[in-house]
UniProtKB/TrEMBL annotation:
It is an enzyme of class 1 (oxidoreductase). This is 2-oxoadipate dioxygenase/decarboxylase. GO terms for molecular function: dioxygenase activity. Its EC number is 1.13.11.93. Belongs to the 2-oxoadipate dioxygenase/decarboxylase family. Its cofactor is Fe(2+). It comes from the Bacteria. InterPro entries: HGLS, YdcJ_bac-like. Keywords: Dioxygenase, Iron, Oxidoreductase. Coiled coil: none annotated.
Length: 465
């Protein structure tokens, strides 16, 4: 039996090999990331593995795909469910993006602490909101829905195998091999000609809409390795002659703890595609829709920590409004803001309940009575803390990556009414729970505190500051 963990790891490897063939610059990105990671390990030693072992970091990937309808999204959930990946979080890029990005998203990933440690593969999955009148008029929506409903992204055999794997916890060897082959093929770039006029009509609304609804299949949009020093990687990719987007998205580089997620990418590359013109002729042209993203993951924050991050992001925008600044100047201003508001130590993050950590016993001291409050347990050396990795995404950063790789801003009529598609509606589409990332992190923290309480023999709950 090939279990869901092994299926997930094998799929991530196959997808990486396939995408590297389709987008060779991705291989360069992976090589540079591993080169930087080796240097950080040599410089920092064990400290470099504070947020995950180097084995985990080296294997770690997140992918991104885009689908067009609720039915397609529900099928995606079945395929990833076979690999122990479940929908976590809700992201509305219609609101986060300044340009026309008419999608809502979730991320499929493992939710169990041990599964994340074994292989934390994630796939950020976006769905087109065809009923949003800010982007699509009634006639265009009708034709778009008809086009999407007429295509088939995933063969029935793949979906049958996925359902069997999820129900049974895995597949036998022959079925697992078939499942992995079909799943990988489903995300390959299609060689089927694309209607030139149809694609162009959607592209005038949004390049993202055209990439989803203008083609007969889906494809992996980007695949993202993890790096331990994203600033070093950003500079080195430029030295390799690969054009990067203008800035690193997310928190600034500063001298305090790394929080949340920092992301960047190389710019979307021109890829040859076949187009069918209205007279039936097939011609070759280029599209620029796929890019190479890379990420540096930090500590998961609590709702209070996230509110602080959002406040600082808004303050940064207000401070720099109307000012032409370079990416370096923007980072310098952001870092100064962070230095005034964000704790510089993990201990302060814990006592301020701003970030999530797991806890473990360091010194049980038989015959002594340990304190029941967490701050004292840590200060007196009874227990130690280890940060929980942020496993999720930031809508503002995702939108920034999308925008930086678009050829135009598209068209968004802000005078029209948007479609109401919230997290509850997405859960209904998925036909399974949409996990709240904060609840998942809090559960991992609570389980570690329960273990500490049991090992120390405490007769009451450990109080979180």
């Amino acid at each position: 039996m090939v279990d869901s963990t092994a299926l997930r790891a094998a799929f991530a490897r196959r997808l990486s090999a396939m995408y590297g063939t389709e987008v060779p610059a991705y291989n360069t990105l992976v090589d540079v990331a591993q080169e930087v990671n080796r240097e950080v390990m040599a410089r920092m030693g064990a400290g470099a593995e504070r947020l995950g072992t180097i084995g985990r970091v080296t294997a770690e990937r997140h992918g991104a795909i885009r689908v067009g309808t609720p039915a397609e999204l529900a099928q995606v959930a079945r395929i990833f469910g076979a690999m122990g990946m479940y929908p976590v979080g809700y992201y509305d890029l219609r609101e986060a993006a300044r340009s026309s990005v008419p999608v809502v998203s979730t991320a499929f990933r493992p939710v169990d602490e041990a599964e994340l440690a074994a292989n934390p593969f994630r796939v950020f999955t976006s769905m087109l909101v065809t009923g949003d009148r800010r982007f699509f008029g009634e006639d265009l929506e009708r034709r778009l829905v008809a086009f999407l409903e007429a295509r088939r992204l995933f063969p029935p055999r793949l979906l049958d195998l996925a359902d069997r794997a999820e129900a049974d916890g895995g597949l036998d060897d022959p079925a697992a091999a078939e499942f992995l082959t079909l799943a990988t093929q489903a995300f390959e770039l299609s060689r089927e000609p694309v209607s030139r006029s149809w694609y162009a009509e959607l592209e005038r609304v949004s390049a993202v809409a055209a990439d989803i609804g203008g083609v007969p299949s889906t494809h992996i949009n980007h695949l993202t390795p993890r790096v331990l020093d994203i600033d070093a990687l950003y500079a080195r990719m430029g030295e390799r002659g690969i054009t990067m987007i203008d800035a690193i998205q997310g928190p600034p580089r500063w001298d305090g703890p790394d929080l949340l997620l920092r992301q960047t990418s190389f710019r979307a590359l021109a890829e040859p595609r076949l187009f069918r013109k209205n007279d039936g002729r097939v011609v070759q042209d280029d599209l620029r829709v796929r890019f190479g993203e890379v990420e540096a993951r930090g500590i998961a924050v609590t709702p209070a920590g996230r509110a602080l991050y959002d406040d600082l992001a808004a303050e940064l925008d207000e401070t720099l409004a109307g000012q032409p600044v370079t990416a370096g100047e923007r980072n310098a201003v952001a870092a100064k803001l962070w230095e005034g508001r964000v704790p510089r130590t993990e201990a302060e993050l814990i006592t301020g309940d701003l970030a999530y950590f797991t806890f473990h016993v360091l010194d049980p001291r038989p015959g002594s009575t340990p304190p029941a409050d967490l701050a004292t347990l840590l200060a007196e050396g009874w227990a130690g803390a280890r940060p929980i990795v942020y496993e999720d995404f930031l809508p503002r950063s995702a939108a920034g990556i999308f925008q930086s790789n678009l050829t135009s801003d598209g068209a968004k009529d802000v005078t029209r009414t948007g479609a109401d598609l919230d997290a509850e509606a997405m859960a209904g589409i998925l036909g399974r729970p949409l996990h709240d990332p904060y609840e998942l992190y809090a559960s991992i923290r609570a389980e570690s505190l329960a273990r500490v309480r049991a090992e120390l023999g405490l007769d009451r709950e450990i109080v979180i500051p």
